[in-house]
Design a protein that fits this description.
The protein contains no helices and five strands. The chain is mostly beta strands. It has a single domain, classed as SH3 type barrels (Roll). A five-stranded antiparallel β-sheet has the order 4-3-2-1-5, with no helix packed on it.
Length: 80
């Protein structure tokens, strides 16, 4: 199961992408597939045809795991 994550990189814009599994605590890097900016645009420092990037942990500030569509709970307010 792929997880959609928001990767906060030091001194760079946050990058959205998918990871295949949760990062191992002993891992030295995160392998990110389909990297893009939060608004869907291409990342400026990557080539357009790049589809996987390895980010070392010393460049990562934090990693947010975004909810999947089936996990997302929609709360609605109905006024009668």
């Amino acid at each position: 199961m792929a997880y959609t994550v928001l990767l906060h990189i030091l001194n760079e814009d946050a990058v959205v992408g998918e990871i295949d599994e949760m990062p191992d605590p002993s891992a030295q890097f995160v392998l990110l597939s389909s990297p893009r900016l939060r608004d869907g645009r291409d990342v400026s420092y990557l080539l357009g045809e790049t589809n996987r990037v390895i980010y070392p942990w010393n460049r990562i500030h934090s990693l947010e795991i975004l909810p999947s569509e089936e996990e997302e709970e929609i709360v609605t307010f109905i006024r009668e």
